[in-house]
Structure formats: structure tokens, C-alpha cells
Amino acid sequence: MAYPESMLSISLGPIALPVAPLLLLLAVWIASWIATKLSTRQDPDADHPGLADAAGNAVFVAAGIGLLVARLAHLASHAQPYLATPVSMLDLRDGGWDAIAGALAGTAWLAWRGWRMPPFRRPLAVAAATGMLVWSAGTLFTGARDEATMPMTALSPLAGGDPVELRTAAAGRPVVVNLWASWCGPCRQEMPTLAEAQRRDSTVGFLFVNQGESEPEVRAYLASLGLPLREVLLDPGSQLGPAVGSRGLPTTLFYDAKGSLVDAHFGVLNPAALETRLQTLRAAR
Question: Would you say 179 and 206 are in contact if contact means Cβ atoms under 8 Å apart?
Fold first, then answer.
């Protein structure tokens, strides 16, 4: 049995949720719980029982500071695309975070709290280490592997012809593979951005793989949009999503010319986020 090399989203009934934020919430919650429990055990008869809760709250504050710094660091390192579309700076769905900067900022906050409050030092140190361990282990288990390659899923060209495997459709180019459907609101939202990128960028291929809809449905939808998309493929059995570890739409994958996965994103891509990933994809050539 073939297993996906990554897990981008999980399904909860009709709702698909991105894995990375859920993993972060789990790591922070566990770290906060440990900080609170260790503070209580350290001094169960303390005159100020609220101190134990304060230790747990410090972890949540550290997480908030870390996320803020992670976002600002990402924006600073990709200033040009975001300045071109300033509203993209506020779109937190784009996955634009500098994890190292955020981890350093959150750890620095906890270290400062421990220095100011000696009883917090051990609980916060253990909590920080545990949170990092949970996050790292979860990322290792669910994250995209460097050796991940294109699935051998057979797809039907909308333009007609015999079914082709995804790698054949990529034709030895760096490609952006977008999984979409006409009923998907976020897909409709990002489609003009992807269409414009396909029109503008001749160095990267764009493959639009429709999930689960018929040829007439896809043709009618594209005609209603008035977007001259090229290289539209059909996946009637919706097999590509599970093969790449995503149960929801839209999902966008970035493969280099050798067919190795460079990046992946579940959810809407705004223009700035798309451009930053295209820069990474071009550099991978």
C-alpha cells in the first residue's frame, strides 16, 4: 500500500482543516498544561495558587509573541511581493511564517519570565522543551519529505486525448499543481491569481487538476469565469488529493523539474504568498 509523504489537511465530517495550525495548538496546550502542573506540584501549599495558572498563561503569551514575530519576520524577508499587494500582509491563511524567528522570540519571552520569577524557571523550561518536542515530532510525521515525488495518478486532459500521469503532464518542468473544484469557494477566490501567474510566468508550468467533476461541468465553469486557463486536467475519482495527503480544497503543490516536492499549501494562496513560493521553486531549479 502506498502512503502519502505528507499530511496537509484532515477531514472532520464535511470540514477539512489544515494540519499545521492544529499541531501548533496541540503543542502549546500541552506545554501550558505541563507548566501549570509542575508549578502546582512544586509548591502545592503556596499562598498564591494563582501562580500556577500564571505559569500556564505565560506559555500562551509566549506563543502569541512567537506568532507575531514569525509573521513579521516572514513579511520582512519577502517584502517586495507583500508591498506589491499590501492587503496580503493581513491574510494569515497564506502560511507565511518564519518558524525559527518565532521559536526564538517565544523562548526568549519564557526565559525572561523565568528570570523575573524564579519559581517559574523549571516549569517553563520543561514546558518549552516539551512543546518543541511535540511540534518537531508532529512536523516530522506529517510534514512533506525532501524525497517526496509526484504520485503516479492518471489524469484526463480537458482538451482531450489519452489519460496521462502527473509526471508526464509536468514534462520535466518545475510545476505548480493546483487541486480545485467549481463548488469550492476558496478555489474560486484564488483562481484568478493562479491564472494571472500562468499567463505571466513562462518558466514554471501550472497544472489545474479538477477533483471529481465531469468535463461538461468543468468547461461550463471555466467559460463562466472567462479565464483562459491552459493545462486543465480531470481527476474524476478525486484520487490525487489523498495521494498527496490532503482531503480538502484548494491544495497547491510545488514540484521542481525532477518531480521532487518543494512546497505545499492547503487553503487560499494570495498573490504575495504565491510569488514567494514561486521564487523558492525557481531557485530550486
Answer: no
CA–CA separation, 31 and 146 (whole Å): 29
C-alpha grid cell, residue 3: 502512503
Per residue in 192-211, pLDDT (tens digit) is 999 999 999 989 999 999 99
> Rounded to whole angstroms, how far apart are CA atoms 194 and 246?
19
The answer to whether the CB of 62 falls within 8 A of the CB of 110 is yes
Please give the grid coordinates belonging to residue 115. Answer: 528570570
pTM: 0.86
Q: DSSP string covering 7-56, please?
A: --EEEETTEEEEHHHHHHHHHHHHHHHHHHHHHHHH-TT-S-THHHHHHH
Q: Is the peptide bond before 250 cis (omega within 30 degrees of 0)?
A: yes
Long-range residue pairs from 222-227, CB within 8 A, at least 24 positions apart, any chain: 225/191, 225/192, 227/191, 227/192, 227/195
C-alpha torsion angle, residues 5, 147, 239, 94 (rounded to 10) = 80
Q: Where in the chain is the domain with CATH 3.40.30.10?
A: 154-284
Q: Which CATH superfamily is 154-284 part of?
A: Glutaredoxin (3.40.30.10)
Q: pLDDT tens digit string along 52-94?
A: 688 899 999 999 999 999 999 999 999 999 999 999 999 988 9
